[in-house]
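INFO  loader      accepted 1 record
INFO  loader      residues=173
INFO  predictor   begin
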Amino acid sequence: MNYKIIRSERKTLGITVSRDCEIIVRAPTCLSEEIIALEVEKAKNWIEKALIKQKGRQNSAMYSEFSPEAVREMKQAVLKTVLPIAEKYSKLMRVSPSGIKITSARTRYGSCNGKNSICFSYLLAQYPLEAVEAVVVHELAHIRHKNHGKRFYDFIYSVMPDYDSRKKLLKGQ
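INFO  predictor   done
INFO  writer      dumping tokens
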């Protein structure tokens, strides 16, 4: 199994699989090659699963390539879709975002910052309305709960009981 070693002044060994399916081992400078090889061997099952997952992601919409014109059109379409959904659920959830923006984010469908400004990825244009609504509700819930704890999900389920099945639409399941 081929892997890249990145050494630094860290104290522990970490293994990741990059977007382009490269196995990266981050290791302390003093750790021997033999110990690194043993740790990689111990993690072989996890690495294989991570590689399969990453290859699946490469084939998903999150990694599709679009022309600049297509991206502009998708951003406009998402904005037209998201604004009324956000307005509807903001009232229902009694929260108010400070702003809504459509971005070119490729690793997440939405985000909410500490100032309650919400961003949505243009890639949502490829998904059914039910999935887009789930992302909107998820990000609006972050206005009230800044983490992914039990209260956060309880809040989401109180507004959208079928949240889990809607989220699966984003994963193609």
